[in-house]
Structure formats: structure tokens, C-alpha cells
Design brief:
With 325 residues, the chain is α/β, with parallel strands linked by helices. It is built from ten helices and 15 strands. It has two domains: 179 residues, Medium-chain alcohol dehydrogenases, catalytic domain (Quinone Oxidoreductase, Chain A, domain 1, Alpha-Beta Complex), CATH 3.90.180; 137 residues, 3-Layer(aba) Sandwich (Rossmann fold). The strands form three sheets. Strands 3, 4, 5, 6, 7, 14 and 15 form a seven-stranded mixed β-sheet that branches. The structure holds NADP nicotinamide-adenine-dinucleotide phosphate.
């Protein structure tokens, strides 16, 4: 088969669509003929040599895909050749075929086409596990989403609204019109406005009950300042650095909780439990049209370098998909 290989760590030009050995499905796995994959921020880091695949994962980039099952490994029940699926991957999505543990498979939601389904597994699993499982967002609470225009952010805004929360999101002003189309969300142009003041304004001084953070160090103090009493701050990205300083007195005064998680390095059993929760609780929201994949554009996988340049520029809103075949 062909896959995108990283010829050496570096810029987008090191991505090459090349012949590689075909994967074989092991026990409890299926082989998926990939129709589309998506560019995630982590792919840019892996390309640069900063985020190697976890042990046992395929070495190629690609944390999610959609496609058709073409082979089932031993012990596989419930999934059959010919079924259309999407999947959460530890790697290997930028390829014509990938072997997937069945616990990481999801059916294509009704009403979503096969290519767009590649936009869902990573964001649905990350957002649901952090906002619902870890931070326990409840109806009537306020959710602050940083990076509202990202793949993660566009999904988190919609899920927050669907769960009955009031949603505030940070994003550069040029993205606000496209984000308003997702539903009622208070948008903050973080380049022009102070998000702490904006959150306090919309919550009558109360603060955000849950914050989904992708900035890390540079937002740590301000995130704690924006938290409500009993608030929960979950960091999933470190785009603003990994080492910060925190006044623990400020956190203590809020009775706040800080959490940080990574999805890719979780063992398969934990991924399977998250995927199962997503199927039970998030898929019905997608099938009801209350949450939808937000796709900035589709590019053929042979243009993966161009797709990485686009995501690096942060000009996109939602997901950038790579189509295969
Ligand atoms: N821990 C996990 O398991 C996990 C899983 C998936 C993703 N992630 C992380 O989640 C983040 C989003 O991932 P993605 O693939 O969806 O990213 P993406 O689509 O590439 O988007 C990155 C976003 O960062 C925003 N941004 C940059 N500086 C900002 C600032 N100062 N304040 C607010 N937003 C800012 C950009 O928006 P503007 O154009 O508005 O600046 C852009 O929308 C990444 O950090 C990624 O590593 C973590």
C-alpha cells in the first residue's frame, strides 16, 4: 500500500506518499480501507520529531480515519467486511489501509457522509472524555473553550451547547462569523479582549465552571482567575508552553480542580471505554443534527504537505481532511 512517510524530521516538505508494507489485522482487529483521514495538531509535532508514536502503534501519522472494513482478524464479532466505519487510531491513518483494534471503531453516524466521518473520532473522544468524564460539565453551567476555531474547539462548542451549558469561546476575530453558525456562543477575540473579564461579564462575576484549555503555561494564571468556585480546568494542549507558575492560593480560594490528559498514550482498554461512551452519548447528538463535523476543507492525501502548512498557519476553522483513493 501507500502511506505518508516522514523522510526525516522537519517541515511539511518531508512528507512523502510512498510504497510501504501492508498492515495485517491481528486478533481483535479489523483492516480498514481508508477513505479519509484528518490533520491533527499532534501530526505537526510528530512530523517535526517531537511526538513519536507510542510503542506498538503504526509509525505513520494519522490519529483517525474513516473507511470500509475489508478484513476481520480472529475473534472479531459485531463487525463485518463491507461495513463503513470511522476509527480512533494511535497512528497510521495517513495510509491506504490501517489495522484497527475493534474497541476503537465507530459506525459512521447516520446523516454524515463517509469522508466527513473522519473528522469525528479524535475530537469527539477528546472533548467528551475531558468535558464530560473528567470535568463533569452539567446543564446550566458555563463552559469556556479556548481555541474555539480549532477542530477540538468547534466540537467542544457544539457539545457544550447540546449538553445545555452556556458556552464562551476564544478565537481570533476573523473566525467569529463561522463560529456563530454553530449555535449560541459568546465569542472572545483573545487578541483584542481579556477573556477573564469577558467570562466574568457573561456570568455576572461567577466565572466558568469548566475550562477546556489548549494553551497550558501562558494561560494558567488567567484560567484560574476565570474559574468559578468549584470550577474544573482541564488542560489538553500546551501551545503556550509547558512550565508555568501558579498562585495556589488563588486555586484554593476557588476550591478549583486542575486536570491534564492525553488521549493518544492511553492503553487500548481506556480508548475502548471512551469510544464506547462516545458511541452511547455523543453519536445520538450527531444523528439528531445537534452536533456536526466542521470541515474546513478536503485535500487529496498527496497534498498532505499543503494541509500541514494550512493547519500550521491556523487559518482553518474546524478540521482539514485528507482524502484517500
Ligand atoms: N490531550 C489530548 O488528548 C489532545 C487531543 C487532541 C488535541 N489536543 C490539543 O488540542 C489543541 C487543538 O487541537 P486541534 O488539532 O483541534 O488544533 P487546530 O485545529 O490546529 O487549532 C489550533 C488552534 O489554536 C488556536 N490558538 C492559538 N493561539 C491561541 C490563543 N492564544 N488563544 C486561543 N486559541 C489560540 C488557533 O486559533 P486562532 O486562529 O483563533 O488563534 C487554532 O484554532 C492542540 O493544542 C492539540 O495538541 C489534545
Amino acid at each position: 500500500m501507500r502511506a505518508i512517510i516522514v523522510t526525516e524530521p522537519g517541515g511539511p516538505e518531508v512528507l512523502s506518499w510512498s510504497e510501504v508494507p501492508d498492515p495485517q489485522p491481528g486478533p481483535g482487529e479489523v483492516l480498514v480501507d481508508v477513505r479519509a483521514t484528518a490533520v491533527n495538531r499532534a501530526d505537526l509535532l510528530q512530523r517535526q520529531g517531537h511526538y513519536p508514536a507510542p510503542p506498538g502503534a503504526p509509525e505513520y501519522l494519522g490519529l483517525e480515519c474513516s473507511g470500509v472494513i475489508t478484513e476481520v482478524g480472529s475473534g472479531v464479532r459485531d463487525w463485518a467486511v463491507g461495513q463503513q466505519v470511522c476509527a480512533l487510531l494511535a497512528g497510521g491513518g495517513y495510509a491506504e489501509r490501517v489495522a484497527v483494534p475493534v474497541g476503537q471503531l465507530l459506525p459512521v453516524p447516520e446523516g454524515v457522509d463517509l469522508v466527513d466521518a473522519a473528522a469525528l473520532p479524535e475530537v469527539a473522544s477528546t472533548v467528551w472524555s475531558n468535558v464530560v468524564q473528567v470535568a463533569r460539565l452539567a446543564a446550566g453551567e458555563t463552559l469556556l473553550v479556548h481555541g474555539g476555531g480549532s477542530g477540538i474547539g468547534t466540537f467542544a462548542i457544539q457539545l457544550g451547547i447540546a449538553l445545555g451549558a452556556s458556552v464562551v469561546a476564544t478565537a481570533r476575530g476573523a473566525k467569529h462569523d463561522r463560529l456563530r453558525a454553530l449555535g449560541p456562543v459568546h465569542l472572545v477575540d483573545y487578541r483584542e479582549q481579556d477573556f477573564v473579564a469577558e467570562v466574568r461579564k457573561v456570568t455576572a462575576g461567577g466565572g466558568a465552571d469548566v475550562i477546556l484549555d489548549i494553551m497550558g503555561a501562558s494561560y494558567l494564571g488567567r484560567n484560574v482567575a476565570a474559574l468559578a468556585v468549584d470550577g474544573r480546568l482541564v488542560t489538553i494542549g500546551m501551545q503556550g508552553g509547558r512550565k508555568g507558575e501558579l498562585d495556589l492560593g488563588a486555586l484554593l480560594a476557588k476550591r478549583g480542580t486542575l486536570a491534564a490528559t492525553a488521549l493518544r498514550s492511553r492503553p487500548p482498554e481506556q480508548k475502548a471505554a471512551i469510544v464506547s461512551g462516545v458511541r452511547d452519548q455523543v453519536w445520538p447528538l450527531i444523528e439528531a443534527g445537534r452536533v456536526r463535523p466542521v470541515v474546513d476543507r478536503r485535500l487529496p492525501i498527496s497534498e498532505a504537505a499543503q494541509a500541514h502548512r494550512l493547519v500550521e498557519s491556523n487559518e482553518h476553522v474546524g478540521k482539514v481532511l485528507l482524502t484517500v483513493g
